[in-house]
Recover the amino acids of this structure.
């Protein structure tokens, strides 16, 4: 097996060859722009790694990985429109740089482009890839709708929140891995295990993101620590604090989250204190560890040479020990 950098370089070369100017420029330039903004490229890297695990040709997985990446960036364009976000990865969002109509239409085109990337696979793989992709794309939309609904609800439960992040984030990681297994003609059982590994890792990844937003190091996190608190987002930390805290803790949190305080630093400090004293921070860390362990337990059960599992294990460890 190869180093993570190998898969990354293979994918980026393929993406750059694909991401060329096309006519009409007003449709395709925004697509070039969003695909060129960078990002971790975690999902397509997992697709390539999974194919390699089952002795498949990495080059055969490039279009499947690219479909995942194109879809992911399509969803970012539309998410930014819904959030009225001005920046993405430190640069202007597509709808800000161009306009709202361009953001909608270029995003729509990207979804179609993602499907077209499966056309080079044989009939069996094409059917399996597109069926999985359609299921996943719809779940991502459902997750986004849950997230929107939760903004105005005061009765969101922890299981509901976990379902939301599973659909909004984790299923795309899971699908990326299963697609790699499909391209390598892995057994149905191993395909499902790859999916389950990615799903558990994706949930752990998002929970860690929630935790880092609150307790991360400002020097390494890459964005404002406490951003979710300022925006009154009801994250896993908040929901656990409301479930575990005293009536006084709950009143304090509710008051802070019901107002847009001008004293952001003071608000963040108070909320973090509540997260810690209620045990919400500890509960979130435990959930991260539990989902990570579940992912690695599935990986251990994969019916392949243990040596071939190591890059996936290293990738998972890298994700879950990150500080940004």
């Amino acid at each position: 097996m190869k180093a993570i950098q190998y898969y990354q370089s293979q994918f980026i070369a393929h993406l750059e060859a694909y991401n060329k100017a096309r006519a009409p420029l007003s449709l395709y330039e925004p697509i070039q722009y969003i695909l060129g903004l960078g990002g971790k490229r975690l999902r397509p890297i997992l697709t390539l790694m999974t194919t390699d695990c089952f002795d498949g040709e990495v080059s055969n997985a490039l279009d499947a990985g690219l479909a995942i990446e194109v879809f992911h960036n399509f969803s970012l364009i539309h998410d930014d429109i819904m959030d009225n976000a001005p920046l993405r990865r430190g640069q202007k969002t597509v709808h800000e740089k161009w306009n709202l109509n361009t953001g909608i239409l270029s995003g729509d085109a990207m979804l179609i482009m993602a499907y077209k990337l499966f056309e080079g696979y044989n009939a069996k793989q094409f059917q399996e890839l597109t069926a999985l992709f359609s299921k996943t794309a719809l779940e991502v939309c459902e997750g986004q709708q849950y997230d929107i609904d939760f903004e105005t609800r005061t009765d969101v439960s922890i299981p509901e929140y976990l379902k939301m992040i599973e659909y909004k984030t984790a299923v795309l990681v899971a699908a990326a891995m299963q697609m790699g297994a499909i391209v390598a003609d892995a057994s149905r059982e191993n395909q499902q295990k790859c999916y389950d590994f990615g799903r558990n890792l994706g949930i752990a990844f998002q929970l860690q993101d929630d935790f880092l937003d609150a307790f991360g190091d400002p020097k390494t996190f890459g964005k404002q620590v406490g951003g979710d608190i300022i925006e009154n987002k009801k994250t896993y930390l908040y929901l656990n604090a409301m479930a575990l805290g005293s009536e006084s803790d709950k009143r304090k949190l509710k008051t802070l989250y019901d107002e847009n305080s001008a004293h952001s630093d003071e608000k963040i400090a108070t909320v973090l204190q509540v997260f810690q004293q209620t045990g919400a921070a500890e509960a979130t860390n435990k959930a991260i560890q539990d989902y990570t362990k579940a992912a690695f337990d599935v990986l251990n059960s994969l019916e392949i040479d243990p040596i071939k599992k190591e890059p996936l294990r290293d990738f998972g460890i890298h994700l879950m020990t990150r500080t940004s």
Notes: The CA atoms of residues 9 and 71 lie 20 Å apart. The radius of gyration is 20 Å.
